[in-house]
Specification:
mainly alpha
Length: 91
């Protein structure tokens, strides 16, 4: 019986001590450090946005160039076909 009480008291004491000594690292930062962290996060977000915009612009430019070339070739082909039709009719 006495051993049970001791064991129970020891368990309660250890659990209370673990809560007291466990410090949340986020609570130990100063407001100055919080502002620095926010600045770094903003900087990294701006970098990521810039890289994404550059990538998108490059892909869009490439697609536009490819589409324009295709349209130019189709137009030239149809013009050639039309010219041949006219030439055949005038003979």
């Amino acid at each position: 019986m006495r051993l049970c009480k001791c064991f129970l008291a020891l368990a309660v004491g250890l659990s209370a001590a673990s809560f007291l000594f466990a410090a949340n690292p986020q609570d130990t930062q100063s407001p100055k450090q919080d502002m620095k962290d926010a600045g770094h996060a903003t900087k990294n977000a701006a970098k990521d946005t810039g890289h994404a915009a550059k990538n998108t612009a490059k892909r869009t430019g490439h697609a536009t160039k490819r589409t324009s070339k295709s349209a130019a070739h189709k137009t030239a082909r149809k013009t050639r076909q039309g010219a041949e039709k006219v030439e055949d009719k005038t003979r």
